[in-house]
Design goal:
With 537 residues, the chain is mostly beta strands. Helices cover 7% and strands 39% of the residues. It contains four helices and 31 strands. Strands 10-9-12-17-14-15 form a six-stranded mixed β-sheet, with no helix packed on it. Strands 21-20-24-29-26-27 form a six-stranded mixed β-sheet. The protein has a six-stranded mixed β-sheet with strand order 22-23-31-30-25-28. 47% of the residues are buried.
Length: 537
Amino acid sequence: MGIKMNFISGLLGFLFLDGLLLCTAADVHHYDFFLQEANFTKMCSTKSMLTVNGSFPGPTIQARKGDTIFVNVINQGTYGVTIHWHGVKQPRNPWSDGPENVTQCPIGPGTNFTYEVILSDEEGTLWWHAHSDWTRATVHGAIVIIPAAGTTYPFPMPYEEQTIVLASWFKGDVMAMISTSIETGASPTQADGYTINGEPGDLYDCSNETTYRLSVEYDKTYLLRIVNAAMNEEQFFGIANHSLTVVAQDAAYIKPINTTYIMITPGQTMDVLFTANQTLSHFYMAASPYHDSVLTFPNSTATAIVQYEGNYTAPSSPFFPTLPAYNDIGAAQKFTNSVKSLANEEYPINVPENINTRIYIAVSLNALRCPNSSCDTATGDRTAASLNNPPFFYNFTGDVSNVSFYTAQGTKARMIDYGEAVEIVYQGTNLGAASSHPMHLHGFSFYLVGTGSGNFNNVTDPGHYNLVDPPEVNTINLPKNGWAAIRFVADNPGVWFMHCHIERHATWGMDTVLIVKNGTTPDTSMLPRPAYMPPCS
């Protein structure tokens, strides 16, 4: 870890020239985040766990488009932690991006660090979470970015808004669990269930008295800001007897999707409208896993209750939504493929067409040999994951000189010149226990221009790209044994982490770094290093 941090810190210093802080934010906000242990009782057991300000999920950050947010993180816990602002581009400011031992070292116990979170063109729902081992299981919360002053939504103003955070719940100590897994090679312990706004819901033992309830008025429209903070599971989500209209994903507006369910991967956010137009009653809001691997998983359902106001006799049990089966790949792909950018005159997009840099990445799960088969697994070896790019995984007929990562001092990274138009093709493989992968890139939003099954063909597949209205996102779902192509302009200098947002895959090694070099002017170069960064001791 020390070698990696020194390498990245050196690159940050090398990339910085004489950038100046230009504050163009409409407003400035200040938050204090106290990292502290707190006791929680759920599913018939009590445990102490790390939180922000004693709450689970943590506090919601609220701002307008273009604002700047300063968050002072005071660590009153027992181990080092960092915070990442998921989906915030942080223009020219990788110093406050947050991935541990990539752009900073942990905030040690008894110390503090103030993050400068710079909003730019993001508008909608994002989220923040710890980026140190598995601490994000309990340290996370939403970021709500409303339109800039004098502007409004591209849809009718909702009556009310509500943040909905989907998460995993572990009865045990998450940090102890993952430490044991790394030490022994055993797979991480699975979650004991899921939560909606911190509560498991009626289907879990000892949980029905604390089920989250959303009170609604008849004929009013509500905006749900949904975050999938679950550690390892994609989720189907719906509300019984109610239609949903999805209007944004990853803080970018999309063409409205009318549906009865959504499929949301770990790391993704969605803005969803629904109108309370049913007979006065109680209706379950439910989240259940989508799982396309042969591995076991916690197949259970979190629930909340949409409760109409008014005088009526409540049912003995709320109505339950019909969600796709856990392994319904068709339902998952149907929803994912329906997401298109709004792409109109007021909300234009700019998809790069003349590509300077193409990167091909094989995404795979495999095995890592343990000495004398000594790991605590059925085979004696440990599971490993990788992001690499040997061209033999593709039907690739062109020059392969531009498909390799640079490796320096043990850190896998790729250098990109400022301003280049980049295309990345992720190729899922059928090695090991193949599954889909939610791939996340820090520092950028990008356009998902194409997906497909099987191996990518660089001659025929680009002809089917959507360059008209592809979704602009920060996290994509790479299909199982398939491929996904993204495009973006590398106009954000710095060191930017890229990884799978299924936490066990990231722990096993499914991550890398993109390094965007400084441009030729102060405005196209990194901001100065803050006067204080957490020490790497």
